[in-house]
Amino acid sequence: MVPGLRHGQLVLTIAPRRKHSFRRGAIVAVDSREIGQRIVKRIIGLPGERVRLDGSHVWVNNHLLDEPYASAATHRATFSVPAGHYLLLGDNRDASTDSRSWRQPYVSRSEITGILISSRPRQRRNGADPPGESP
Fold this sequence. Notes:
Blueprint: E1 10-14, E2 27-32, E3 37-45, E4 50-54, E5 57-60, E6 63-64, E7 76-80, E8 85-89, E9 106-108, E10 112-120
Antiparallel strand pairs: 1-10, 2-3, 2-10, 3-8, 4-5, 4-7, 5-6, 8-9
């Protein structure tokens, strides 16, 4: 999720309520059945939507999505998100493993275990910044 989140960064999430309506752009924690671990990604496609990736541009139902958080990308594909599922992408598009590369590109609602509500910078060790980071 670089540049929005860095590896090892602490994040606070809340568990979604059973009837919670997820919004596009939300960052969620997912217990991925395909990968077999918890991951953090951004919701891009909602149930019933058609998402087209055209390099650095994302189109949802033929409307260009404004994504100031995302890095440039080269991937091209079209997805039709089934009912009860979501299309998830990482913000560092050309380096992210996400819906574009999974065998099953859609994540079911039941796999979403948390919604990010805040994040904190990584903890400093001995007063020094973690490698590659500055205050």
